[in-house]
Design a protein that fits this description.
InterPro entries: DUF503 (IPR007546), TT1725-like_sf (IPR036746). This is DUF503 family protein. Pfam families: DUF503. It comes from Peribacillus saganii. With about 90 residues, this protein is an alpha+beta fold. It has one domain: TT1725-like (Alpha-Beta Plaits, 2-Layer Sandwich). The protein contains two helices and four strands, in the order βαββαβ. A four-stranded antiparallel beta sheet has the order 2-3-1-4. A hairpin with a 6-residue loop joins β2 and β3. The longest helix is centred in the first third of the chain and has 18 residues.
Length: about 90
C-alpha cells in the first residue's frame, strides 16, 4: 500500500531562502531518520516562508501505512518553527 501526504507549510521565522532551507533540511532529515518514509520538498522552492512537503510511506498493509504517515505528520507538527496549513492525503 502506498500513501502520499502533501503538506503545505508556513515557516514564519524565515527571512531568507537560506533560513528556510536550514529549517527544511533539519525537518526532512529527522523525519527520514525517525520514520520509514520518504520526504521531499514539492513546491514553493523559491518562496522563503512557504513550502509544500511530500511524505510517502509504502508498507504491506493499509493500517500500518496509515499509522506510519499519521506518526510522521504528528512529528511534523511538533516543530515550532513550522506550521502545517493544508494536508492532502492520497492512496496511490
Amino acid at each position: 500500500m502506498i500513501l502520499l501526504a502533501e503538506c503545505e507549510c508556513i515557516i514564519h521565522e524565515a527571512q531568507s531562502l537560506k533560513e528556510k532551507r536550514a529549517v527544511l533540511q533539519r525537518v526532512i532529515t529527522r523525519l527520514k531518520q525517525r520514520y520509514n518514509v520518504s520526504v521531499a520538498e514539492l513546491d514553493f522552492q523559491d518562496v522563503w516562508q512557504r513550502t509544500k512537503i511530500g511524505v510517502v510511506a509504502i508498507t504491506s498493509s493499509k493500517a500500518s501505512t496509515e499509522r506510519e504517515i499519521q506518526s510522521a505528520l504528528d512529528y511534523l507538527d511538533s516543530f515550532p518553527e513550522l506550521e502545517r496549513t493544508i494536508t492532502d492525503i492520497e492512496w496511490l
